[in-house]
């Protein structure tokens, strides 16, 4: 046994049923702030100066997900993979057995779905472990506690001396291994954490200060809130420059059979006159995007004197503007278009327009807005001589997730 060695066991074999089904699998493989929960937790321990070995206990069915979550396993030379068991308790025992050869003096046992523990918490727990006592990070219970009976309050529980337990939980290695072996042999009790097994086995457990942010991600809502918090923190930490661009376009209406607006062909008794398909909505949005990085306007990139753009679909122009913005380091956040016309009616085609723009800009549909208004029969629009469009685009430049 290495006298002062600290090893860590990360338990990541759970199915996370309370978080619901998800294409990425169990909650440890879902992303918060652009990184998987598991990767955040593994990096915390694998890169900690005081932790010499890390055992990652996973479900054998998750090996494919594990490779995607930790694509550069070479970055973690101290990491050992171990198959989990049918229960958390069995999984921890498998992790402890993996350390048996040259066992450490201290072992820290941590839930993979607590990705917000800090290096200082790891130090605090490890330093509190002694040969005859473990260490448990806790938060004092602040809420008033009630005991229920039949759907009614039966009693108020005195919260003094009550604590919420966290991980990592630290123990002297040989005593906690012995406690797990004894529990497996002598009782059918399903222990909810390793401190409970230590208590049952007679091993003292010292309380140390936990951290309010060291939450366990249990539900889908927990994951959503954690993701939002990290993204907000990233936006505050990194230099992000959010810019807004405006665009305006107008085309004349002439006799015809259809108009193309925001990428959608609409049957009509007139058509828009122009060198391309004269889609005023996409032309205005193209100018709005180019404005966010000072890249001129649509005429600079697609001059009407160039015959190659005759009759061209305006989607080409919008895609070029998108690529120019992306190359300049921008991420398109929102697109809004107002169409000004007396006819045709826009409402029946609005969602198709939004979807066409969203597909072109690689946005979710909720980030695209298309609105329409008349000109109250005033002016050239009111006389049905033309259709105008005003567009606004928001683009974030700088370091974004």
UniProtKB/TrEMBL annotation:
4-CDP-2-C-methyl-D-erythritol 2-phosphate binds at residues 249-251, 275-276, 297-299, 373-376, 380, 383. Pfam families: IspD (PF01128), YgbB (PF02542). Keywords: Isoprene biosynthesis, Lyase, Metal-binding, Multifunctional enzyme, Nucleotidyltransferase, Transferase. It catalyses: 2-C-methyl-D-erythritol 4-phosphate + CTP + H(+) = 4-CDP-2-C-methyl-D-erythritol + diphosphate; 4-CDP-2-C-methyl-D-erythritol 2-phosphate = 2-C-methyl-D-erythritol 2,4-cyclic diphosphate + CMP. Transmembrane segments: none annotated. InterPro entries: IspD, IspD/F, IspD/TarI, ISPD_synthase_CS, MECDP_synthase, MECDP_synthase_CS, MECDP_synthase_sf, Nucleotide-diphossugar_trans. The keyword Magnesium does not apply. GO terms for molecular function: 2-C-methyl-D-erythritol 2,4-cyclodiphosphate synthase activity; 2-C-methyl-D-erythritol 4-phosphate cytidylyltransferase activity. Bifunctional enzyme that catalyzes the formation of 4-diphosphocytidyl-2-C-methyl-D-erythritol from CTP and 2-C-methyl-D-erythritol 4-phosphate (MEP) (IspD), and catalyzes the conversion of 4-diphosphocytidyl-2-C-methyl-D-erythritol 2-phosphate (CDP-ME2P) to 2-C-methyl-D-erythritol 2,4-cyclodiphosphate (ME-CPP) with a corresponding release of cytidine 5-monophosphate (CMP) (IspF). This is Bifunctional enzyme IspD/IspF. The lineage of its organism: Bacteria, Pseudomonadati, Pseudomonadota, Alphaproteobacteria, Hyphomicrobiales. The gene is ispDF.
């Amino acid at each position: 046994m290495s006298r002062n060695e600290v090893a860590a066991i990360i338990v990541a074999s759970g199915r996370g049923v309370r978080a619901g089904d998800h294409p990425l699998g169990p909650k440890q493989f879902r992303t918060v702030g652009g990184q998987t929960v598991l990767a955040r937790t593994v990096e915390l321990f694998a890169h900690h100066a005081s932790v010499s070995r890390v055992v990652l206990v996973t479900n054998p069915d998750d090996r494919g997900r594990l490779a995607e979550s930790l694509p550069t396993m070479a970055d973690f030379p101290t990491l050992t993979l171990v198959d989990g068991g049918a229960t958390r308790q069995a999984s921890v025992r498998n992790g402890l057995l993996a350390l048996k050869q040259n066992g450490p003096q201290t072992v820290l046992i941590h839930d993979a779905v607590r990705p917000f523990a800090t290096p200082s918490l790891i130090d605090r727990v490890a330093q509190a472990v002694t040969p005859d006592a473990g260490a448990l990070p806790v938060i004092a219970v602040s809420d008033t506690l009630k005991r229920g009976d039949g759907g009614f309050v039966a009693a108020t529980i005195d919260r003094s001396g009550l604590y919420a337990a966290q991980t990592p939980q630290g123990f002297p290695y040989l005593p906690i291994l012995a406690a797990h072996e004894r529990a497996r042999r002598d009782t059918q009790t399903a222990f909810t954490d390793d401190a409970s097994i230590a208590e049952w086995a007679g091993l003292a457990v010292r309380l140390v200060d936990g951290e309010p942010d060291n939450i366990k991600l249990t539900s889908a809502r927990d994951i959503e809130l954690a993701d939002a918090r990290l993204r907000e923190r990233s936006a505050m930490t990194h230099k992000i420059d959010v810019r807004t661009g405006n665009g305006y376009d107008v085309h004349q209406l002439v006799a015809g059979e259809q108009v193309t607006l925001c990428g959608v062909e609409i049957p009509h008794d007139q058509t828009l006159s122009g060198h391309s398909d004269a889609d005023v909505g996409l032309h205005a949005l193209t100018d709005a995007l180019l404005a966010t990085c000072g890249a001129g306007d649509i005429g600079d990139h697609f001059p009407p004197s160039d015959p190659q753009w005759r009759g061209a679909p305006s989607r080409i122009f919008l895609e070029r503007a998108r690529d120019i913005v992306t190359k300049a380091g921008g991420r398109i956040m929102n697109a809004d278009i107002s169409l000004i016309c007396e006819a045709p009616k826009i409402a029946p085609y609005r969602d198709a327009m939004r979807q066409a723009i969203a597909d072109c800009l690689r946005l979710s549909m909720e980030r695209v807005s298309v609105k329409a208004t008349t000109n109250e029969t005033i002016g050239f629009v009111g006389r049905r001589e033309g259709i105008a469009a005003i567009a606004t685009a928001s683009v974030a430049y700088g370091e974004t997730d």
